[in-house]
Amino acid sequence: MLRARFLRRMAPDSQFYQLFNHLPRVSFFAKDERFRLVAANRHFVERLGFQCEDEVLGKDDFSLFPARLAENFRRDDEEVLRTGQPKLGIVELFFNRQGIPDWFVTHKLPVRDTAGRVIGVMGIVRAQGGAPRAHGPRPRSALANDTGRAPRR
Distance between CA atoms of 23 and 48, rounded to whole angstroms? Predict the structure, then answer.
């Protein structure tokens, strides 16, 4: 009750999510029901090679990433939108800021409207560093080719 009252009092443009700009090595994003970015923190924006959030707003994964990656991201987003359930601990191999393959962990949660309907997806991505642990979710290589092996350089 207290939280609901507080959140109703917030100005629509207060950008509560900007707190994520101050968490080191954490990328934050939010997408609408059409999978367009509606919010992103500085780390997410800069990791994609942009200077400011306005440059990525309205774009979807297919305009920002190679098709193979975008398909994986879209599949996860569709599942969250369809089920209304979070998808946590997604371990993926992806390029870090230096262009070197590294392990990342993604958590995706539904965004709901005031009636409780799912209207989008929000998430965080952080570098795990090193190989994933033996226990936990099976890693998904975003760099793998159709055979499931990493591409040759």
Answer: 17
